[in-house]
Design brief:
Helix content is about 30%, strand content about 25%. The chain has helices at about 30-45, 60-65, 85-90, 110-125, 165-170, 185-190, 210-220; strands at about 1-10, 25, 30, 50-55, 75-80, 100-105, 125-135, 140, 145-150, 155, 160-165, 195-200. Helix 5 (about 165-170) crosses helix 6. The longest helix has 14 residues, at about 110-125.
Length: about 220
């Protein structure tokens, strides 16, 4: 089946203390977003890659691609007011049935084996999202009080979140809800089962200067 990757890159640089959007910050000599795109290109050279960007950032992205001679073929969709709308706009460029992965543009440290597990599982069962065990103790806060939760029942969710295209498109026909924090929550609300696969602990979302330092160190020693 045809494989797609929708890479959502609509972040800002506020938590980085930078005026440069975090997906455009340099990591190991080139913008973070380029590293992320290359993971999927290197995993499957026939995959259709769709990058979703705010309209205000499109010209800058085009200039960066020219500056860094970035020639990985990809389509660009205009982002919406929310992640939900941005993914929906990216899905509009999925032009045939297949398997669609949605990935955060600032997660360049996802491993090939994680990506492979997600696409293989989604091909077989319709959905797959990567998760990791919680290493920390976890508490739930309700009505001003907190209570402990058995951390063995908790999973930390990552991307790519991968689904059969018909399932994902059907789910995104729903009205937006603040509960939709990721694609799995959208798909689950539409009545579908979400399957879990093992992620990789390095697959962090780069949002702070410390994250960037960590990513530099991992890429220097060769992640994949």
């Amino acid at each position: 089946m045809k494989r797609y990757a929708i890479i959502v890159a609509g972040g800002s640089g506020k938590r980085m203390g930078s005026i440069v959007p975090k997906q455009f910050l340099q990591l190991a000599g080139k913008p973070v977003l380029m590293h992320t795109i290359e993971v999927f290109r290197n995993y499957d050279k026939d995959m259709k890659i769709i990058v979703v960007l705010p309209e205000s950032q499109m010209e800058h992205w085009k200039n960066l691609c020219e500056e860094f001679r970035f020639d990985v073929q990809h389509s660009v969709a205009v982002g919406g007011a929310s992640r939900f709308e941005s993914v929906k706009n990216g899905l509009a460029l999925v032009d045939e049935d297949g398997i669609v992965g949605v990935h955060d543009g600032v997660r360049p440290l996802v491993r090939f084996d994680t990506v492979n597990r997600c696409y293989i599982e989604a091909s077989a069962y319709g959905s797959a999202i990567p998760v990791c065990d919680s290493k920390e103790s976890v508490r739930i806060v309700e009505d001003g009080r907190s209570r402990a939760v058995d951390r063995t029942t908790i999973r930390m969710v990552q991307t790519p979140q991968v689904f059969r295209s018909r399932m994902l498109k059907d789910a995104y026909r729903q009205d937006f809800s603040p509960f939709f924090t990721d694609d799995a929550s959208v798909v689950e609300k539409a009545g579908h089962v979400v399957h879990l696969v093992n992620g990789n602990k390095e697959n962090i979302k780069i949002t702070t200067p410390d994250d960037l330092v960590y990513a530099e160190a991992l890429l220097a020693r060769g992640l994949n």
